[in-house]
Design a protein that fits this description.
The chain is mainly alpha-helical. It has one domain. It is built from 4 helices and no strands. Helix 2 runs antiparallel to helix 4. The longest helix is centred in the middle third of the chain and has 31 residues. It is elongated and about 55 Å long.
């Protein structure tokens, strides 16, 4: 196990974090960070779904069948790449969140 040195100023702030031990406090902070990042990612995904009135899977199918108007416009191509990336990020964050909860027995 690797030793982690925590500056005294951070130790003082950790007393306000949820948990009994420093390890538990750090684990809960990491869990909270993952939840916040997942929430932010989900909100950004929703914006694309709202903009195109489709889930990404449906949009991708329409894209592949050339049913997306102006498919190669800068805006739509950029949206497609960002949306696809957000889908991957969402899946990764969700996986890491589940893994973290299993480790913490939550």
């Amino acid at each position: 196990m690797e030793t982690l040195q925590i500056p005294n100023s951070m130790k003082e702030m950790l007393q306000f974090a949820e948990g009994k031990t420093i390890q538990e406090k750090l684990a809960r902070l990491l869990l909270s960070d993952l939840e916040n990042r997942l929430r932010s990612c989900t909100e950004r995904l929703y914006e694309f779904e709202k903009k195109y009135s489709l889930a990404f899977k449906q949009f991708k199918e329409a894209w592949e069948k050339d049913k997306v108007p102006e498919k190669f416009s800068y805006e739509i191509e950029r949206d497609y790449m960002e949306w696809e990336s957000l889908e991957d990020e969402h899946d990764l964050l969700l996986s890491k969140l589940r893994e973290m909860k299993e480790r913490l027995n939550l």
